[in-house]
Amino acid sequence: MPLTPDQQADIDTLRSTPAQTLRAVSPGMEAHLYTAHPVLDHGFVRVIDYMGDDAAICQAARVSYGKGTKSVSNDEGLIRYLMRHWHSTPFEMCEIKLHVKLPVFVARQWIRHRTANVNEYSARYSILDREFYIPAPDALAAQSTTNNQGRGEALSGDEAERVLRILRDDAMRCYDHYEAMISDEGQQGLARELARMNLPANIYTQWYWKVDLHNLLHFLRLRADAHAQYEIRVYAEAICAIVADWVPAAYSAFEDYRMGGATLSSTALECVRRMLKGEEVTQENSGMSKGEWREFQGVIG
Amino acid sequence: MPLTPDQQADIDTLRSTPAQTLRAVSPGMEAHLYTAHPVLDHGFVRVIDYMGDDAAICQAARVSYGKGTKSVSNDEGLIRYLMRHWHSTPFEMCEIKLHVKLPVFVARQWIRHRTANVNEYSARYSILDREFYIPAPDALAAQSTTNNQGRGEALSGDEAERVLRILRDDAMRCYDHYEAMISDEGQQGLARELARMNLPANIYTQWYWKVDLHNLLHFLRLRADAHAQYEIRVYAEAICAIVADWVPAAYSAFEDYRMGGATLSSTALECVRRMLKGEEVTQENSGMSKGEWREFQGVIG
Amino acid sequence: MPLTPDQQADIDTLRSTPAQTLRAVSPGMEAHLYTAHPVLDHGFVRVIDYMGDDAAICQAARVSYGKGTKSVSNDEGLIRYLMRHWHSTPFEMCEIKLHVKLPVFVARQWIRHRTANVNEYSARYSILDREFYIPAPDALAAQSTTNNQGRGEALSGDEAERVLRILRDDAMRCYDHYEAMISDEGQQGLARELARMNLPANIYTQWYWKVDLHNLLHFLRLRADAHAQYEIRVYAEAICAIVADWVPAAYSAFEDYRMGGATLSSTALECVRRMLKGEEVTQENSGMSKGEWREFQGVIG
Amino acid sequence: MPLTPDQQADIDTLRSTPAQTLRAVSPGMEAHLYTAHPVLDHGFVRVIDYMGDDAAICQAARVSYGKGTKSVSNDEGLIRYLMRHWHSTPFEMCEIKLHVKLPVFVARQWIRHRTANVNEYSARYSILDREFYIPAPDALAAQSTTNNQGRGEALSGDEAERVLRILRDDAMRCYDHYEAMISDEGQQGLARELARMNLPANIYTQWYWKVDLHNLLHFLRLRADAHAQYEIRVYAEAICAIVADWVPAAYSAFEDYRMGGATLSSTALECVRRMLKGEEVTQENSGMSKGEWREFQGVIG
């Protein structure tokens, strides 16, 4: 259970205190505000604030393109046009602020997306809680034998049990020692900023993360992708569900043009053209390497 | 008059249609929403949307610093502490979206602040309006004789009249020719993206500009400064008045620590220490150049 | 002629004074250093400095992926792999600094690429030169009748002549008045920061522009594209030629995967799969709008 | 010893293979290239590449300010002027690329500086080495009793010994288990991307980090400061020594105006003015809080 009763009470209070505003309001997003969506064993994602909606994207586009855009029959068509032609600035006009609780090794991947604002819980200043990510048995995957950066099948029961025992025991022992080192009972007590170095990377941290919609979609494209590590992908998927309710037209265009789309190289396009003319194209006469050809086969089915 | 009746009617409609939200609401900002604050002869600044308030800054800071921050007696004290110690990330948690109408030469200075999102009216796509900035007579300043990048006194009446006539005539003639070149009556009509090159830099453009509070305050520190060009300073001042209503505690700390503050060099601090001990410090024995000494005198009065 | 004899002499001196370095050196780039490549009638692009080469991209990738990358047979294969999978950070490890002279209306488009460092000639501080972009007759295009943001055919001889006369006359007259207003002979002389507002957008400015290779390639993809305005496209093309000499493997991968490639939506990919199975796909049964279908036809030939 | 014999041999080869270049060369920096400067027990900082020197800063400034800047007698004076007036763009024209080996908890602080390019060793892809930061006894500090985010005195011998034993034992045990989990001998072997979660935050990682001089100086101001955590400060200090050799004039101005300088608030400046007039100013009549007054006393000595 990721939330304490106090935290849940805070959320209930915030959700029961509406106020009036003249700003654009997204009904789908209002339904999400403050509520914690559980992710992994102790993590969550929740929306703290947002700015804009589908209409705000169109409004910004219309500032740029003036009266011409009025000819596009509706907002959905305009949004699809913008997404298709990589006109990214109107999507930057929406903003979201999330509160995320996540394991440190996930946070380390996440933070590499630089165009965002972050306030993270400080382990120099405060004491971390005893909460560690311990994978569910079906998420305990073996190293892929074909891909250095991937997972293979789930571990067998015996091996899984061994691994889970190690992860739990090491986490608990390291945390016990963390507490023992910072304690000031009968000793000086090690500085928090030093003691934290004993904590393994599956400990949970939390942060406020604020990002515009364009950069968020870029993050989701990479992190909700099948090649992303499972432990960050589940966060990305939880955010996808939120974005779909926030800006339904933008999210739908994103699914069609980005998540479900693919970029073909000049060489690959030429192969498609040859194949459509009835020519038999093989890896050997395609101009592609074996790796590229395999990926190309995956795309064109 | 910067707004057409249609635009004013749109604003009136938006201002008369409140909705319910669970988000943080800043009453001072709600009063500003959509209303156009006139700047220069045809320009304006108006708030299209915002996210966060003083409490949101503190909330983000408390995520970082945990329970420790609860000891700071109140939000205002915490905000002053953050501003004093350059803890900028909590201020990044607030966001504002402005609609600005401004002369092109002002837009060219403004856009140099890169950490912002912009959608500008496209003169490739649409036809610019016949609106030019013509300075008020008391803003028609002579070149400074002591500072290459500055203004001196206002021009005398005769010279001012000459200059205003030039600015008006050239603007009108260039715009007449712009219209003539793009016209498709009895001719093909030059492409808009080419015809615009004939328009002088005092023509008005407009954009949506979205920025977080930290970067906005940085912009305001530079552009509301006495050394900034008058034509951008009046925009910065109009925004200052809005920010003061939006996040009163943050703006007050900004005024004390940034706008009214000054950075002293190591050498200058040493001079202050010597002077406070009663030593007579002159430029010659200060370790400063003449320019630095003059600026130092300005700071310590 | 874009360069004065003094400038050319400076360039000759710089090019005749090699020094020793332990850094990575790109022979193709050394051949470009300082030399001005003419663009448009008075503009140029020249390389002032650079950092890194193809090997530096691979070196950075190998830090990330460790020993695994050694299995990729060569640098070129690794670079193609990185480009294909949008692994952008190794490309960020190369940097280029250009000196560009360009019309103001081109500079206004260019500056919208925010992830770069810029030092532009200041018209607050210094006096602009009497240099204006006047298009060559075959670049004088009519407004497109099918695309609000595009050009159609070249103007006829008569109309072209009329337009060129206007552009030349207005530029000269506005510049005459600029000079007259800032003159301090027999008058106070208007401040430079004000007088510049009388200058049309085809006047030339110049800047130093520094950018990493990843962001440069993104700029080139958008601005060397057939839909970009001709006047910025010629700058992008001049830079493409430089990059091809600087990092030949990266540029070749960029041409294949970006410039010559295309992103197909989920819907478009499904159509390709159906067509390859022999199904007859039309706009009506494609799931695409007319605009999308037309673009799709363009891609698959 | 942070380097393997192979790595040292690579460095020796690189340092013994000069090439010719037409670019700006900084002799001070050439002396540093590739050499590893040890930091902490297993870490290092080394320069992989650089762009620009003091003259390049001035050259960029002169593009902006034109002929006016020639009146400043020399480059050093111009650089001091730029630093004093926060003209940051000329400093952005220099760039540095570092190879850094550092503990993960230091990397987590470091990465919060977003305006930089990074390629980090991937623990999804490759196996981390058995190298952990174990503090020297005199760096084992107690938690500060007055500052939540700080250190007090060094731990006593007994307590220090206890802490060091814990840190060493937990690191070794966690690493043993990491190896055991990923081993494929007699079992499937856990995926690397999962096994790494068992490793504590004092394990070493490494990255290439590329940043412009302006943002580097901002980083150094914060991280070479007395309030920064010791373990990141020693990296910042090692980089300071490198920058002082690279761009001596810029570094000297940075020391005077930034590292040794202080920003006084409007209220603090007013107090200085009153004190210089002979008035007795106390915290009570200063208008400052107790915290501010204490900091102010620290600044004016």
TrEMBL record, chains A, B, C, D:
* InterPro entries according to UniProt: Thymidylate_synthase_ThyX, Thymidylate_synthase_ThyX_sf
Q: What class of enzyme is it?
A: transferase
Q: Which domain of life is it from?
A: Bacteria
> Which free-text remark accompanies the cofactor?
Binds 4 FAD per tetramer. Each FAD binding site is formed by three monomers.
Name the Enzyme Commission number(s) assigned to this protein: 2.1.1.148
Segments passing through the bilayer: none
Active-site feature positions:
R223 (involved in ionization of n3 of dump, leading to its activation)
- Keyword ATP-binding (UniProt): no
Pathway(s) served? Pyrimidine metabolism; dTTP biosynthesis
Instruction: Cite the binding residues for dUMP.
Output: Q109, W110, I111, R112, E120, Y121, S122, A123, R124, R196, R223
Q: Which residues does the record give as FAD binding sites?
A: T89, R112, H113, R114, E120, D212, L213, H214, H218
What family does this chain come from, according to its entry?
Belongs to the thymidylate synthase ThyX family.
Question: NCBIfam families from the xrefs?
Answer: thyX (TIGR02170)
Q: How does it assemble?
A: Homotetramer.
Q: Quote the function comment for this protein.
A: Catalyzes the reductive methylation of 2'-deoxyuridine-5'-monophosphate (dUMP) to 2'-deoxythymidine-5'-monophosphate (dTMP) while utilizing 5,10-methylenetetrahydrofolate (mTHF) as the methyl donor, and NADPH and FADH(2) as the reductant.
What name does the UniProt record give this protein?
Answer: Flavin-dependent thymidylate synthase
Taxonomic lineage of this organism?
A: Bacteria, Pseudomonadati, Pseudomonadota, Alphaproteobacteria, Rhodobacterales
